[in-house]
């Protein structure tokens, strides 16, 4: 029932072969830390994104583990070498079956 | 209705203020917990200071969103690269913040992410190299708290 | 909130001269809250791929097209392209509609209930804020042009009176901080001028997008006053006065604040 989580990914549309490109990926998620309380004083249970992964033409190029200390709407930016034209796929997984995906294509010349 | 706060009341408030600050923070990790978390990463390898740079603004306006950037000196070649980066906060309820796994294809060992800091503290970044060595860097951060918030 | 009192010793001097009514900030000296933020926070606001409020904007854009309610109509069905038909709208709210004073969220809520025939959202509902962010962003960069419909002046005057009235256990008026003391530090935070230019906005303290009313209520809690309830006419009057006070300043929605 829940709508797919929104994501923002930023990948250059084109690059020179061998160029190191910067990538940014953000996913909409409250990253409930498990340390916050409701107004009535009850602890709000932990509910976070745990894993982020980026593959480039199906090869993993970057992976991260998030802990409750990652800010809401977790953002990561990292670099990778532009090797060939193709697709970068971004994937997030978290508590309670949370999962989100995004992709971007790149033209390498 | 328009009660004026007299001087005595003000100093009371001042005392209460520091109390409430402590009250607001969840159970904190200690530098010891952080050391344990770092040992869990480095295992039996002795960590060495250097090669890792952690950039955090020295003063942040709100600990709920703190931009952190890690860069590690490494040629990032097939034979000499950064395998993993870990970030540990000394005074957060849990010391672990973020871990990243990369390889020579990254081209550079640089990354940015946004974290939470419960309070003013030292934050560590560890880099595990392809040769098994572990290098560390840190940043000291002053966290100010918002003045007007929801709850009294 | 008690953190307020930490600096009270410093702010105390205030009460000595604050008996008289504060003069308005000269028009040329007005600065958006953006001006008081650290450079990194400002950069984050102005980069849509880094500003977390972008998610509210995207959600609002999707909701604009969504058919709901027993009328089974989308906002788009009646209003068409938001880029065209909502341009400048947020810059003149609050306004009077059939004699009712309404801020932007209340206007949207009225359309949901009366036009779409759907059940009302609770205050600060994510979807309501998302639509207000989407409509607000259509005025980004446009100057605030307060509504001049008949009867608005009385509401602005009431808002001004509230702005100048001492409140709460700390016995401070909005004006004492925001007209007389802007730029000074309070618990390490600069006091801004309180311009409503960027709402709804993502506040780091909230870790969410919230309305101007939520922000105003925080300042009331800050002086240890019982905050006005969401939707209370006094809050909308305060909003009306703040918009007038910020007339001509550009809309920044979707904003970001600490």
Protein described:
The complex is a heterotrimer of chains A (109), B (152) and C (258). Chain A has 109 residues and is mainly beta. Helix content of chain A is 0%, strand content 51%. In chain A, the strands form two sheets. Chain A has a five-stranded mixed sheet with strand order 2-8-7-4-5, with no helix packed on it. Chain B has one domain (29-145): SoxY domain (Immunoglobulin-like). The longest helix of chain B has 18 residues, at 7-24. By secondary structure, chain C is mainly alpha-helical. Helix content of chain C is 41%, strand content 7%. Chain C has twelve helices and seven strands. Chain C is globular and about 50 Å long. The B-C interface holds B 2-5, 10, 13-14, 16-21, 57, 59-62, 64-65, 67, 144-152 and C 1-6, 8-9, 12, 15, 37-38, 40-41, 44, 52, 166, 169-171, 186-189, 191, 204-207, 217-219, 221-222, 224, 258. Strand 6 (75-81) of chain A pairs antiparallel with strand 7 of chain B, so a sheet runs across the interface.
In round numbers, the mean pLDDT of chain B is 83
Strand fraction band of chain B?
35-45%
Percent of residues in helices of chain C comes to 40-55%
Number of domains of chain B: 1
Fill in the CATH topology of chain B.
Immunoglobulin-like
Rg of chain C, Å, rounded: 18 Å
What is the first-to-last residue Cα distance of chain B? 20 Å
Give the spatial strand order of the biggest sheet of chain C.
6-5-7
Q: Give me the number of helical elements of chain B.
A: 2
| Integer-rounded radius of gyration of chain B | 20 Å
Q: What distance separates the N and C termini of chain C?
A: 15 Å
Overall pLDDT of chain C, averaged?
Answer: 92
Biggest pleated-sheet summary of chain C? 3 strands, mixed
What is the helical fraction of chain B, as a range of percent?
A: 10-25%
Q: What fraction strand of chain C? A: 5-15%
Which pair of protein chains has the largest interface, and what are the residue counts?
B-C, 30 and 36 residues
Number of strands of chain C: 7
Structural class designation of chain B: alpha+beta
Q: Residue ranges of chain B: pLDDT <50 for 5 or more in a row?
A: 1-25
The number of strands of chain B is 9
The CATH class label of chain B is: Mainly Beta
Question: What's the short story on this structure?
Answer:
The complex is a heterotrimer of chains A (109), B (152) and C (258). With 152 residues, chain B is of the alpha+beta class.
């Amino acid at each position: 029932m829940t709508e797919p989580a929104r994501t923002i990914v930023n990948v250059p549309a084109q690059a020179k072969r061998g160029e190191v490109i910067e990538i940014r990926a953000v996913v909409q998620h409250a990253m409930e830390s498990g340390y916050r309380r409701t107004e009535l004083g009850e602890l709000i249970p932990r509910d976070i994104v745990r894993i982020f992964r980026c593959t480039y033409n199906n090869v993993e190029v970057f992976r991260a583990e998030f802990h409750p200390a990652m800010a809401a709407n977790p953002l990561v930016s990292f670099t990778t070498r532009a090797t060939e034209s193709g697709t970068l796929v971004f994937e997030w997984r978290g508590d309670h079956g949370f999962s989100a995906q995004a992709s971007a294509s790149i033209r390498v010349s | 209705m328009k009660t004026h706060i007299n001087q005595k009341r003000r100093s009371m408030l001042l005392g209460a203020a520091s109390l409430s600050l402590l009250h607001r923070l969840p159970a904190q990790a200690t530098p010891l917990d952080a050391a344990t978390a770092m040992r869990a990463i480095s295992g039996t390898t002795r960590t060495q200071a250097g090669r890792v740079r952690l950039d955090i603004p020295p003063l942040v306006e709100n600990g709920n969103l703190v931009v952190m950037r890690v860069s590690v000196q490494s040629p990032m070649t097939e034979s000499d690269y950064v395998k993993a980066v870990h970030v540990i906060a000394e005074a957060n309820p849990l010391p672990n913040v973020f871990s990243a796994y990369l390889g020579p294809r990254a081209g550079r060992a640089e990354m940015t992410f946004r974290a939470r800091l419960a309070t003013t503290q030292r934050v560590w970044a560890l880099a595990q190299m392809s040769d098994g060595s572990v290098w560390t860097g840190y940043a000291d951060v002053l966290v100010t708290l918002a003045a007007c918030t929801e709850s009294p | 909130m008690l953190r307020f009192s930490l600096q009270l010793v410093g702010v105390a001097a205030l009460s000595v001269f604050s008996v008289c009514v504060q003069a308005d900030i000269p028009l040329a000296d007005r600065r958006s809250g953006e001006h008081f933020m650290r450079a990194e926070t400002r950069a984050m606001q102005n980069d849509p791929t880094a500003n977390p409020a972008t998610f509210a904007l995207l959600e609002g854009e999707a909701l604009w097209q969504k058919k709901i309610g027993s009328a089974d109509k989308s906002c788009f069905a009646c209003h068409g392209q938001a880029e065209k038909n909502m341009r400048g709208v947020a810059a003149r709210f609050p306004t009077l509609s059939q004699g009712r004073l309404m801020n932007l969220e209340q206007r949207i809520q009225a359309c949901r209930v009366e036009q779409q025939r759907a059940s009302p959202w609770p205050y600060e509902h994510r979807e309501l804020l998302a639509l207000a962010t989407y409509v607000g962003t259509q005025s980004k960069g446009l100057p605030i042009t307060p509504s001049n419909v008949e009867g608005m002046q009385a509401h602005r005057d009431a808002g001004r009176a509230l702005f100048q009235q001492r409140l709460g256990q700390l016995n401070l008026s909005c004006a004492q901080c925001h007209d007389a003391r802007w730029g000074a530090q309070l618990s390490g935070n600069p006091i801004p001028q309180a311009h409503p230019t960027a709402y709804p906005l993502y506040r780091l303290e909230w870790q969410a997008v919230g309305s101007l009313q939520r922000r105003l209520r925080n300042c009331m809690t800050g002086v240890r006053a019982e905050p006005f309830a969401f939707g209370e006419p006094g809050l909308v009057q305060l909003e009306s006065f703040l918009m007038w006070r910020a007339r001509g300043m550009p809309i920044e929605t979707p904003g970001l604040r600490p």
